[in-house]
Amino acid sequence: MVIRQQDLSLSDAAVDRIFRALADATRRDIVRRTLAGEATVSQLAATYDMSFAAVQKHVAVLEGAGLVSKRPHGRERLVRGNPDAIRRAQTLLDAYEQIWRSRIARLDDLIAETDPT
Question: Which residues partner with 69 through β-bridges?
């Protein structure tokens, strides 16, 4: 089975950005929180043991990967998770799972063919 990323409308670079962004626990938590509801960067920063600037950098990485977006709200920026980007990543993972399951099924068939009993 071949995974055609054009079917997922994701370039190799986009896939790399998404999974690099999701490789960090803080960024995964920010995505989880902003999928549940919008939050300002200040609200996000208040819950982590790091500086506001560090949280801002995490949000920028997520935004660059398309996993969150920011919109102005007065003097602040509201961060919102992007469920479509998560779905595209899930679709890619599902395709990899199908490859894995197909290989296991072929291995099972091969073992059944060579089993002397």
Answer: 80
